[in-house]
Design brief:
314 residues, alpha+beta, Structural Genomics Hypothetical 15.5 Kd Protein In mrcA-pckA Intergenic Region, Chain A, Pseudouridine synthase, ten-stranded mixed beta sheet, four-stranded antiparallel beta sheet
């Protein structure tokens, strides 16, 4: 007699209290061991994964009691290849701070914060690959692949929930350095322009200023003029995708090296002068934290040498 395994079927999961605060994509990767990330992102995008019967996005934060619909999946998928040693060493060398609850990186540019959408390994996958005990580590926030600087990772889900609460009440300060084209007439400038995220047929994401977009506010402060450019500090009040880049371009002062929202008339001369990347760096991260000796955490990521060298040559 031939015995055949039952075909895979739809099944449902309830989010337990200890999984609350986790992103949907991270929850699924933990539950679906050995399943390619590309499959997970594809079924989420198609609406085959449902949270409380509604379509969801990969970065949706889950709450205790949420019901998740998972489509049929075969568990004999080929496991993903582990990150290479060079990537692991690069991330390890980038650690700015670490304790039993948190880890802060000075994320290098060119490395995504998480895998998916054509990216095999991001920062979080690389960190988890270093030790089996890192499975619960999570990204507290995200940075664009092209952006360097302070990136906060939590080691416990309770810590992630604490930080999400602080962020919801706008009690986490994030400050960036950007070099923009042109000169600013004022030392301080607040941009309040709603942003709408669009996905092109190619799958590329483009964000535009649009009246029907989500509210977005950025505070800019002039640091100094450098030749034909302005070095500015940007403080986020909201955290929309590509927010600083789009708001800077909206002002008519695009960030140098920005191939998506920038201006080739400025990018090309800057590239000839040695700027090979986006000049956007997450410089500082600050928040109250009772567990810290001083009652708060303040992290500063030094400007990468390639950006500092470009400034020095002006």
């Amino acid at each position: 007699m031939n015995h055949h395994a039952a075909p895979p079927s739809v099944h449902y999961l309830r989010v337990s209290a200890d999984r609350a605060g986790q992103r949907l994509d991270n929850f699924l990767r933990t539950h679906l061991k050995g399943v390619p990330r590309s499959w997970i992102y594809r079924v989420i995008r198609r609406g085959e994964v449902r949270v409380n019967k509604a379509r969801a996005k990969p970065d949706q934060t889950l709450a205790a009691g949420d019901q998740i619909r998972i489509p049929p999946v075969r568990r004999n998928a080929v496991p993903q290849q582990a990150p290479g040693q060079i990537l692991q060493q690069t991330i390890t060398r980038s650690i700015l701070y670490e304790d039993t609850e948190l880890l802060v990186l000075n994320k290098p540019d060119g490395i995504a914060v998480h895998g998916g959408s054509g990216v095999r390994h991001g920062v979080i996958e690389i960190l988890r690959s270093l030790d089996p005990g890192h499975a619960d580590w999570e990204l507290m926030h995200r940075l664009d692949r092209e952006t360097s600087g302070c990136l906060l990772i939590t080691k416990k889900r309770a810590v992630l929930r604490q930080l999400h609460a602080l962020q919801q009440h706008k009690q986490i300060s994030k400050r960036y350095l950007a070099l923009v084209a042109g000169h600013w007439p004022e030392s301080r400038y607040q941009v309040e322009a709603p942003l709408r995220k669009n996905t092109l047929r190619s799958g590329e994401r483009i964000v535009t200023v649009a009246a029907d977009g989500k509210p977005a506010r950025t505070h800019f402060r002039m640091q100094r003029r450098i030749g034909p450019y302005s070095l500015v500090e940007a403080r986020l009040e909201t955290g929309r995708t590509h927010q600083i880049r789009v708001h800077a371009a909206h002002l008519g002062t695009p960030i140098l090296g920005d191939n998506k929202y920038g201006d080739p008339r400025h990018n090309q001369p800057a590239r000839r002068e040695g700027l090979k990347r986006l000049f956007l760096h997450a410089r500082q991260l600050h928040f109250r934290w009772p567990q810290a000796p001083s009652g708060c955490h303040h992290f500063t990521a030094p400007l990468p040498s390639e950006l500092q060298n470009f400034l020095d040559r002006q």
